Amino acid sequence: MIIWLDHIHRVNSRIEPLNRVGFLKKKNYPVDRTFDHLAFSCILGKKIEVELHDREGEIRLREPCCLLAMPGQNRKLIPHFPFDEFYFVFEQPSVPLLFHESPPLLPPHQMIPLEKVPLIRDYIRLMLKLLRRRLSGSLCSQLDHLACSILESTYWNRSGEPHVRQDVKMTALEDYIHRNYHKTLDMDALARKFGMSYATFRRLWASRHKHPPHTEILRLRNREAKELLKDPGLPVGKVAELVGYGDARYFSRFFRAQNRMTPGEFRTRELAKIPSVPQP
């Protein structure tokens, strides 16, 4: 699958436009090419063994990883087992703007093991999900933004100043919390997941927020719980489960502490606000 996006007018012109996105399954043939564009690719699969030849020599890839090719570079890949490849392309004029006029500091062979940037899997899944929809300017702008986020999480943030790299990581971490607040989150483990110590995480969080992360999680859970309780067909126990509480009684205590009323009282109050519909 290769989806060309260069013919679609974007809604947000401040983000560099993607040229194309591809997802190739069970790739089992060698590729030897000189690039005239920027290409990000992610090699995926359970059993990986790929020879990579470039100007630095030869290495063997034996785990899922990210690769970056810059304009003018040559690279040869020889697979010993079929692998899946996700990739996207930006045209050469976009490159300086993608990296804020500062060339990226590239690792050996421009390869980063995927385990060091686990968030990339989520970005890829989201991009592939979007590509199943009808292409439009708005959707392509979302894809452009996600591709830039991938570069920021891998190669771009390795070339900036330390405070810039930390800011990018912190933004990604906050986004993760907002998407997963219904889960049990270990802040120490979460900080390590995004490449920072817990002390650094606490300092950066305090510089952005007036309340600790635990309070933010409670706020997000409470906001969703109030929205779900407006549905009279949804049992309170199910609401508790959906916002992260396996024990409905504990959820009721939490909700009362946040709102000075029980979930049942809140639901009764909200349903009373809905005007009755006259029967025909």
Structure characteristics:
alpha+beta; Jelly Rolls; Arc Repressor Mutant, subunit A; 3 domains; six-stranded antiparallel sheet; 10 strands; elongated
Structural summary, described in words:
By secondary structure, the protein is α+β, with helices and mostly antiparallel strands. It folds into three domains: 2-160, Jelly Rolls (Sandwich), CATH 2.60.120; 164-210; 214-272, Homeodomain-like (Arc Repressor Mutant, subunit A), CATH 1.10.10.60. The protein is 42% helix and 20% strand. The chain has ten helices and ten strands. It has helices at residues 95-98, 119-130, 137-154, 162-180, 187-193, 198-208, 213-229, 236-242, 248-259, 263-272, and strands at residues 2-4, 20-27, 31-34, 37-44, 50-54, 57-61, 65-69, 74-79, 83-91, 111-113. The chain has a six-stranded antiparallel beta sheet with strand order 1-2-9-4-7-10, covered by helices on one side. Strands 3-8-5-6 form a four-stranded antiparallel beta sheet, with no helix packed on it. A hairpin with a 2-residue loop joins β5 (50-54) and β6 (57-61).
Task: Give a short synopsis of this structure.
By secondary structure, the chain is an alpha+beta fold. It is 42% helix and 20% strand.
Q: Order of strands in the sheet with the most strands?
A: 1-2-9-4-7-10
CATH architecture of the largest domain: Sandwich
Low-pLDDT ranges: 157-161
Count of spatially separate domains: 3
Q: Can you identify the CATH class of the largest domain? A: Mainly Beta
Write down how many β-strands occur, each being a DSSP E stretch of 2 or more residues: 10
How much of the polypeptide forms β-strand, as a percent range?
15-25%
Cα distance spanning the termini:
54 Å
Major sheet, described briefly? Answer: 6 strands, antiparallel
User: Mean pLDDT score, rounded?
Assistant: 88
Regarding quaternary structure, how should these chains be classified?
single chain
Tell me the CATH topology of the largest domain: Jelly Rolls
Helix content range of the residues, please? 40-55%
The CATH H-level superfamily of the largest domain is Jelly Rolls
Provide the structure class: alpha+beta
The backbone outline, from C-alpha atoms, is: elongated
